[in-house]
Amino acid sequence: MAGLILALDVTDREKAINIANEVADYLHAIKIGWPLVMAAGMDIIDSLSQIKPIICDFKVADIPNTTKLIVREARNHGAMGIIVHGFVGRDSIKAAVDEAGKMKVYVVAEMSHPGALDFMQKHTDDIVLMAKEVGAAGLIAPATRPERITHIRSLAGDMEILAPGVGAQGGSAKEAIEAGATHIIVGRRIYEANEPAKAAKALYDELTL
Ligand code: NUP
């Protein structure tokens, strides 16, 4: 079944925990990234893990050894998954997968913003095939370009596809799932809403209709 992942890009620990509790019933997982971790510290992973599984969106893009050290920190704090960049190449992705243990590694295949067309899209196919071969659990693909999700799905087999870009960036939850995503990632549409639970429920309903 399709799932909703909250991108919790707030920079206040208490606010993060309050929103997570408020919308938890509708979520598959919570994705956190540099804004919240830099503001609240790595322990926020441990705290939020009590509410829902946590995916660390660290977009790791480094040599294999540094990648390994970053993946280990996320794992030691109880993260369920970590997002790494694919363009750095096979050895770095393999280092992430080898270090991840039970944690899932998600590889960015194509980003959702317009700038992804400058360089990244030219290499999407190779990144997807490499991520699959190396044993990554899933891919990040753009809800802003559902036709690209369909293309990426055609190469990805049964890998998970997490699609950011729904709501604030203009993408549609339903279209992303119909195109082949297994999960959508949504931030501002939920955490900037007057009633986050209502916003999360609306997206959840869209996925389950
Ligand atoms: O290609 C990507 N696009 C994207 O928006 C890869 C991502 N990881 N993200 C992240 O998804 C982005 O950093 C943010 O945390 C979330 C989308 O948030 P929003 O546009 O729904 O507020």
From TrEMBL:
GO cellular component term, pick one: cytosol
Pfam families named among the record's database cross-references: OMPdecase
Keyword Lyase: yes
Binding site for substrate: 9, 31, 57-66, 112, 164-174, 187-188
Statement: the UniProt record of this protein carries the keyword Lyase: yes
Enzyme's top EC category: lyase
UniProt entry keywords in alphabetical sequence: Decarboxylase, Lyase, Pyrimidine biosynthesis
Recorded catalytic activity of this chain's protein: orotidine 5'-phosphate + H(+) = UMP + CO2
Role of this protein: Catalyzes the decarboxylation of orotidine 5'-monophosphate (OMP) to uridine 5'-monophosphate (UMP).
Family affiliation: Belongs to the OMP decarboxylase family. Type 1 subfamily.
Name of protein: Orotidine 5'-phosphate decarboxylase
